[in-house]
Amino acid sequence: MDQSISEHPKDPKGYTNFGNLLIAMGESSRALAFFEKALSLNHAYGSAAFGYGNALFELGRYKEAMDRFADAQNNGVNNGDLFYMIGRSALELGHSGQALAAFQRAVELNGNDLEAHFQYALALAKLGDLNTAETQFLTVIKAQPSHADAYYNLGVIAAFRDNKDKARESFKKALELNPGHMLAANGLRAIDAQSN
Where does the record place its TPR repeats (predicted)? Predict the structure, then answer.
């Protein structure tokens, strides 16, 4: 077991760190016990609540994950990662508005988190705010020019606006970056079929 746990058995930090390591190793179900131990030592240890929420999320227990994320927030965790995970959980639970607000907050707290920008853009598009969604997808591409999914979604927005040339260009770019991108291939076929 982790050396810091052996040396400091009453410190929740060691249990929390070991739980996070187990999640990274794909052993989320084993991680739960370590977060529970950390929280039994200090029920207000926000990092343990956040880790616990992450483990629950990985296990598909989204409602419980949301409860742990709320505990983490109530105990001082206030960063982009927390709001990103709240957004992911809210999406899984079908709460689009809550997901949108959480992703927006994640981006505000950590403007460098491209996955948060991407999820925020998807949530915006789903709720019909295509202009802001487009801006977010472009932010992703500017920072990561190889993001095929962002190009694909720009193609969808362009197709929705009946801008076939821009849609075709975006779908082609997505396929250039990821030749196996089936959605982009389907989008391109649909645009070409309309043009013929």
Answer: 12-45, 80-113, 148-181
Q: d(Cα 161, Cα 122) in Å, to the nearest integer?
A: 17
CB-CB contact of 89 with 66 (8 Å) = yes
- 1-77 under CATH 1.25.40.10, yes or no: yes
- What are the structure tokens assigned to 144, written together? 């990561």
Poorest-confidence range of 7-21, 36-50, 136-150, 178-192? 7-21
Residue 7 has pLDDT above 90, yes or no: no
Sequence-ordered alpha helix ranges (H) in 75-181: 80-92, 96-109, 114-126, 130-143, 148-160, 164-177
Q: What percent of the chain has pLDDT over 90?
A: 91
Rounded to whole angstroms, the Cα distance separating 142 from 137 reads 9
Q: Which residue has the tokens 């801008």?
A: 163
The tokens describing 64, both together, are 């419980």
Cα 153 to Cα 36, 91, 122, 124, 161, distances in angstroms: 40, 18, 8, 12, 12
Question: Could you identify the residue written with the tokens 């707290």?
Answer: 109
Backbone dihedral angles phi then psi of residue 129, each to the nearest 5 degrees: -90, 75
Q: Report pLDDT digits (tens) over 89-108.
A: 999 999 999 999 999 999 99
Residue 106 CA to residue 99 CA, distance in Å, equals 10
